[in-house]
Amino acid sequence: MKRLMIKTLVAAAALAIAGVAAAQEKTFKFGLQNPKGHPLEMGAVKFAELVAAKTGGRIKVNVFAGGVLGGDAANVSALQGGTIEVLMLNSGILASQIKDFEVYDFPFMFAGAREADAIVDGPFGQKLHARLADKGIVGLAYTELGFRNITNSRKPINTVDDIAGLKLRVIPNAINVDWVKALGANPTPMAFPEVYAGLEQKAIDGQENPLSVILANKFYEVQKHLAVTNHQYNPQSLIFSKKVWDTLGDADRKALQDAANEASKYQRQVNRSKSADDLDELKKAGMQVTELSPAEQARLRDKLKPVIEKHGTAIAGTVAELQAELAKLRK
Length: 331
What we know:
Layout: H1 2-24, E1 26-31, H2 39-54, E2 59-64, H3 72-81, E3 86-90, H4 113-121, H5 123-130, E4 137-147, E5 149-152, E6 167-170, H6 174-182, E7 186-189, H7 195-200, E8 206-209, H8 211-216, E9 225-228, E10 233-241, H9 242-245, H10 250-284, E11 288-291, H11 294-312, H12 316-330
Parallel strand pairs: 1-2, 1-3, 6-7, 9-11
Antiparallel strand pairs: 3-10, 4-10, 5-8, 5-9
Helix pairs in contact: 2-10, 6-11
């Protein structure tokens, strides 16, 4: 009888331990818009690998690329509700939550990748991410989409005037609509998963994105002309559901944060190392590539200054703070 009791107790203890272990195991969904093989997807996969390694496999992150979980706006809402745990998206899209994030969409804000890294990884970028907590979002780190360029199916762009009249897809927010209007083009806000079909069906003439996006999404199949304008730099925010975050212990939070920091550095390095190769691949795929002369690039900047001034008024403090940080970097 005594031996039977001991066996029963041992079995019960084993079941209890197994139950605790099972309870600690978690699976998170990670959504992003770009497809498998894109540097952002590679960064997401690296994050998932790091989380698994840092938690001994207790936390599994499943990556859903290519917008299969829906567009950015719907994903942000799902993240706030806790049905999607992790997202990576253009930081400027978060202006729908905190208006100051619009500053990341200002044309020609950063002169290069070094400046961008210093800003987003420094106090300025961290402060903006911290403000998301009140909106049910935890800002973990910044990755990058990179510098954006314009493609279209109608004509080569050799001058700023060549942009006029084109119907261009833009990220659905006010500043992107306004800078396209300032160039005499017709902005068409559109969720990213709809862009390829829009180009293929001629609902839009063109779009603007970094080279990696143009290549990974095979826009060269439905776009003939590429103008290397580098008119806007897009940091990406790697964000987490605060609703879920608040249920986690300190060790798991640290594992997620550390994984995000490491994955962000990896992703940026991959993205930058691929840039020159991406341009060559697009040329091989048949795209006709043009670059604006220094004089035309200066004209482009001048035409977009009023847009920055208009949208900067509502977030004047944030703009001044960013410009002060940039001034320090440029000394």
